[in-house]
Amino acid sequence: MNRPATPLTFSGNFTQQEAIPEDAITAAVAVMQGGRLHRYNVASAEEISETAALEMEYAKYQDQRFCLACASGGYAIQLALRASGIEPGDPVLTNGFTLSPVPGAIQAVGGKPVLVETTSDLVIDLEHLEQVIKSSGSKLLLLSHMRGHLVDMDALCKLLDAHNVVMIEDCAHTMGASFNGVKSGAHGAMACFSSQTYKHINSGEGGLLTSNNEEMMARAIVLSGSYMLFERHEAAPGADAFQTLKLETPNCSGRMDNLRAAILRPQLQKLDDNGIRWNQRYDAFANALKENSNAIELPARHPDAYEVPSSIQFRIPHFTDEQNQQFLETCATRGVDIKWFGAEEPKAYTSRYDSWKYLEPTSLPKTDEILKRLYDCRLPLTFSVEDCALIGRIVAEVTQTINAD
Ligand SMILES: *Cc1c(COP(=O)(O)O)cnc(C)c1O
Hints:
The chain is an alpha/beta fold. The chain folds into two domains: 22-269, Type I PLP-dependent aspartate aminotransferase-like (Major domain) (Aspartate Aminotransferase, domain 2), CATH 3.40.640.10; 271-404, Aspartate Aminotransferase, domain 1 (Alpha-Beta Complex). The chain has helices at residues 22-34, 50-62, 73-83, 101-108, 126-136, 153-162, 214-223, 245-248, 258-292, 321-333, 365-371, 385-404; strands at residues 66-70, 91-95, 112-116, 140-144, 166-170, 178-179, 182-183, 190-194, 207-211, 305-306, 311-315, 339-340, 374-378. The strands form three sheets. Strands 1-9-8-5-4-2-3 form a seven-stranded mixed β-sheet, with helices on both faces. Strands 7-6-10 form a three-stranded antiparallel β-sheet, with no helix packed on it. The protein has a three-stranded antiparallel β-sheet with strand order 11-13-12. α9 crosses α12. The longest helix has 35 residues, at 258-292. The radius of gyration is 22 Å and the shape is globular.
């Protein structure tokens, strides 16, 4: 390879998301002018609040009967776990490779996280899952579609059915994705989404919970802090479903407000287009890696999966510890912000499962081996397709330079 005289560099900001669209800003201003920011504060019985409207639109988007908007993605997971009837000390299966709010939500509701191995394609290891279903006796899987990678959902559902395991899906990274034409989040009993700034729609903080299950959704609505105003929900079960639940279910206040809902509704209209834009950026980055280095491995996508890659992951398996360090440092000096999942010490948003010290110590040798040389890079939509090709080329060049040394 001809090495350019001056090394290529990049100067973009990896944490800069796009501006909130103008129509969303207009909708937010209208909510503020009206003063009715609380979701149950309506001017008349006929008025549907922005939050209730968002829930209707998102239920339709997901092709699910019910939707509840709430305070955050992590909170949506807590609601789903509670709605599933979890008891203190119940084992809950989940991915060893995920973000800390996932085991955190299990811990928050008194469950006991049981971690499952990851494959080199960064999806849950179905063989290991079956083993731990048997060894733990758990009847609940909180599946995290970490970094948007979809496992073979048909094989997974078959396995879970065979063992009577209920699934809750953490779709923080798969909003807009689908498997075999079925929206991600429509396979489990409930699905949890996030509208935190770095996810696929942005209200700073926020969560969405979807389901077709009447009882679970009624329970989640009361848990979220509906008081006796659950009839102001539109994408919700009828009043009958609440009759006994409403008195037996605690109010664990964590609602969404109309301001956030107002800025999310117009973004929902753009979600599918943005999915295409993210794929273009991913492809440009991935192609630049493939064209300029043969040492970098990308996770394979299941042929039936449509993913929305708002970030890219790749492995450089043969790097020594020293080369790994050199790689991270050189990328940084070239302006490329690479996260490493293998670090001993948790850093910023990234932590390895063995740093969650509130869990019983678990050993996941396969996951360790993968995370050890797994790198991650955000692809914000403020980057052009050309930017992403350039970043990919820089990463590949740095890799080749280190290999040659
Ligand atoms: C962000 C995230 C969450 C939690 O979402 P918040 O809205 O930040 O609480 C859960 N799971 C994964 C994989 C995430 O990335």
